[in-house]
Amino acid sequence: MLAKYSPARLIRIISSFVKNYRISINSIFALFFALGLGLSLISACSPNNTSNSPATQTVNQKSTNQAVVVRIGYQKAATILNALKNRRTLEKTLAAAGASVTWAEFPAGPPMLEAMNAGSIDFGYTGESPPIFAQAGGTPLLYIAYDPWSPKAEAIIVPKNSPIKSVAELKGKKIAFAKGSNSNYLVVKAIETAGLKYSDIKPAYLAPADARAAFEGGNVDAWAIWDPYLAVAQQATGARTITDATNLAPNRGYYLARQAFVDSRSDLLKTVLDEVSKLNNWAANNPKEVAKFLEPELGIKAAVLEIAEKRREYGVLPLTDKVIATQQDIADTFHKIKLIPKQIQVKEIVWKGNK
Question: Where is each Solute-binding protein family 3/N-terminal domain found (predicted)?
Answer without folding.
Answer: 69-286
